[in-house]
Amino acid sequence: MNRKNESFQAHAPSRRQFLKTASAASLAAWPIGSTTAKAASKSERLRFALIGCGGNGTRTSPVGKEFADLVALCDVDEGHLQRGNELLCDGKADLYSDYQQILQRDDIDMVQISTPDHWHTKILVEAMLAGKDAYCEKPLTLTIDEGKLIRKVQKETGRVVQVGTQQRSSFDKFNKALAIIAEGRLGTLKKVTVRINAGSWSPEIPLADVPSGLDWDRWLGPAPKADYRYLKTPNDRWYTNGHTQFRWWYQYSGGKLTDWGAHHIDIGLLGIAAAGLNDQPVSINGTAAHDVKFVDGIPQQDDRYNTAREFDLTVRFAGGDVEMNIRHDGDRGILFEGDQGRIFVNRGKLVGKPVEDLAHDPLPDDAIAKIYRGMPMEGNDRPAHWANLIHCINTRQLPIANVHSHMRSLHVCHLAGICCRLGREIRWDPDAERVIGDELADSMLARPYRPGYEIQM
């Protein structure tokens, strides 16, 4: 099974019916390059809240403000909250330290979830159950089983969720690369090499006082109880198990494999599907290097970064027609190799002879639009990604980066992490969504939530 002909699911109208049916119909008919929902009248604009006012939240929400009104902010760090209010809302937003108070508000249509990864699933599930649509940063989940729950709740509630993999809305590079593949310009696709750079290293990080204004227990949330650690070196480098650096700890994230992997592995799998091949993984094997010792997949030190720093992994797919190599070295991006040509794409370039050949043999006019599933194409990258979200909220379609297709990609990222932690091949049943013949590896598809921070169903 592949995603080339993935259908779209229509849902019941949204709770507040913020746009009339005629307006939604006109948005559904936007031609490429038309005016987006950001031009809608003030009374028609959505109202949204930002949950998590750290780095990525403050980078992404200004784009969202082009399309909707940001009215509330939430963070467990008072400094982040106040800084976000001044930066994003001229000091006029409603401020919260508890996101559940936002979910109780009937006048908020959607939420942007920009917390650390280990909080994504709990907030998103509860937001959907509260009747909110959402934009959630990648990676959507900390585990594969969390993704199963998200998909289930999305189907049951019909909420629209856009995952923050904005490379899916890059028309000039990533979607053009996918169109080249779909049009057969590489011949038969044989290999995909995904390079996502090495993970971060740290020295021993000592215990430290929790910064003033940070509610550390609530920052940890569903993750295991842990002491706060912080180190700043004489050359102004800093290391911590908290803000920004959380992604280098398996307790809160998955390292490079779910950081850049959620972007580039995603595009690699979309390329396999665009080629008409089976994109369901059946095995992952290879080598990895960590800076701490592991026993049964559990790091044995808690004073330094513990996610994989180096890796060379091979993913095989049902059907056996193509393989994927995931590496830490080389130029970050995706190399697609077919029996008639090859192309390389990242955020800065799209190169290869099939790209050069477009000068005298261009793609069909609708080739890129087909990759974007015939939905309106406005702007590029983040603006286009938000425009697609608003369009899909209006029409109740699945967005370009919906939870179902994203989790198919994230399965590879998470299974790669399990492979690295255990140091052995992982065999996967894509239909049952279970690990084959490895009870320990299968148990790593889920993690317990800390008491008091379970998902409220």
The appropriate CATH architecture of the largest domain is: 2-Layer Sandwich
Q: Proportion of β residues?
A: 15-25%
Task: Enter the CATH topology name of the largest domain.
Answer: Dihydrodipicolinate Reductase, domain 2
Shape: globular
Helix content: 25-40%
Largest sheet entry: 9 strands, mixed
Q: Count every beta strand, where a strand is a DSSP E run of 2 or more residues.
A: 19
Q: Please give the radius of gyration in angstroms.
A: 22 Å
> How many discrete structural domains?
2
**Head-to-tail CA distance between termini:** 32 Å
How would you describe this structure to a colleague?
The structure is a single chain. The longest helix has 20 residues, at 403-422. Helix 10 (261-274) packs across helix 14 (403-422). The chain is an alpha/beta fold. It has helices at 21-28, 55-64, 78-89, 99-103, 117-129, 144-157, 174-182, 216-220, 256-259, 261-274, 353-356, 367-371, 382-395, 403-422, 439-443, and strands at residues 46-51, 68-74, 94-96, 110-113, 133-136, 161-163, 189-195, 230-232, 238-240, 281-289, 294-295, 298-299, 310-317, 323-327, 333-338, 342-345, 350-351, 426-429, 434-435. The model is unreliable at 1-42 (pLDDT under 50). Strand 18 (426-429) and strand 19 (434-435) form a beta hairpin. It folds into two domains: 21-169 and 372-402, NAD(P)-binding Rossmann-like Domain (Rossmann fold, 3-Layer(aba) Sandwich), CATH 3.40.50.720; 174-200 and 246-370 and 405-443, Dihydrodipicolinate Reductase, domain 2, CATH 3.30.360. It comes from Crateriforma conspicua. Keywords: Oxidoreductase. This is Inositol 2-dehydrogenase.
